[in-house]
């Protein structure tokens, strides 16, 4: 059972590393439209 747990742990580490590399190399485009939203004064404490 110890060997099985080690294999699962190593697979999880490899998967997390691959996900991290993917996110670091992903060129997410910047927003192309300007967003303006009016927030009412009632939302903020005075």
Largest sheet: none
- For the secondary structure, the number of strands is 0
- Beta-strand content estimate: under 5%
Number of helices: 1
Average the pLDDT over all residues and give the rounded result.
92
The structure class reads mainly alpha
What is the overall shape?
elongated
Radius of gyration: 22 Å
Unreliable stretches (pLDDT < 50, length at least 5) are none
Spell out the blueprint of helices and strands.
Blueprint lengths: L1 H24 L21
Summarize this entry quickly.
The protein is an all-alpha fold and 46 residues long. Helices cover 52% and strands 0% of the residues.
Structural description of this entry:
This protein is mostly helical and 46 residues long. It is built from 1 helix and no strands. The radius of gyration is 22 Å and the shape is elongated. The model has no long low-confidence stretch (mean pLDDT 92).
Keywords for this entry:
46 residues
């Amino acid at each position: 059972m110890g060997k099985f747990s080690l294999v699962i742990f190593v697979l999880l580490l490899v998967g997390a590393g691959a996900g991290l590399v993917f996110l670091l190399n992903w060129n997410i485009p910047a927003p192309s439209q300007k967003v303006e939203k009016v927030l009412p004064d009632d939302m903020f404490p005075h």
